[in-house]
Amino acid sequence: MKNTDTVFIVDGVCATAGEEERMDEWNIDILFTASQKALGVPPRLAIIAFSTKALETYEKRKEPVKSYFMDIGLWKPIMDAYAEGQAAYFATPPVNMIYALYESVKQILEEGIEERFKRHQTIAKAFREALKALELQIVPISEEYAANTVTGVYYPEGVIDEEFRKNMAKNGVIVAGGTWKT
Questions:
Q1: For residue 181, what pLDDT is reported?
Q2: Whether residue 18 sits in one domain with residue 103
Q3: 167 vs 146: CA distance, rounded Å
Q4: Which segments of the chain have a pLDDT < 50?
């Protein structure tokens, strides 16, 4: 898509900092993530990176962005001001979350991103092997397609989603709702 007008957008919410993502090499124009996944920060921050192509595309928009906080046009002047050493903001920032993100990024850099990718891959493979040892079926049909930061598991035959979640809740465990259809 590099030589097209198409903007390549990647949802990295479960992947960023745990799966390989190469924004420049893969010509990703917009990469968005959240703080609570592989970045290891409590939930509350949306983190978005834009390529020059994405910013130029934004400038050509004919319709306004419908989400106030997702409008890069509101954020760009803030980022430009900070780049010039001036403080600016149009809303109250979650300062404690910014410090938490700073600490997380510092730890990631100390570990090294390639080592972090390898660590997530090793742990994910071990987790999937443990699930298989319990005779549970994982969603990816092949290890080649399995993610290192999320593992989907099918219920064993006869397990009913709603009943399972209610029983787990009685024991203080919350299981997100939803079922897979095959």
A1: 55
A2: yes
A3: 29
A4: none
151 alpha-carbon distance from chain centroid: 14
Q: Is residue 176 part of a domain?
A: no
Report the domain count for the chain.
2
Tell me the C-alpha distance between 75 and 141, whole Å: 41
How many CB atoms are closer than 10 A to CB 28? Answer: 20
| pLDDT reported for residue 55 | 93
pTM: 0.81
Average pLDDT, the chain: 90
What type of residue sits at position 14? C
Q: Is 55 left (phi over 0), alpha (psi -120 to 50) or beta?
A: alpha
- DSSP states of the chain: -TTSS---EEE-TTTTTTS---TTTTT-SEEEEETTSTT---S--EEEEE-HHHHHHHHT-SS--S-STT-HHHHHHHHHHHHTT----SS---HHHHHHHHHHHHHHHHH-HHHHHHHHHHHHHHHHHHHHHTTPPBSSSSGGG--SS---BPPPTT--HHHHHHHHHHTT----------
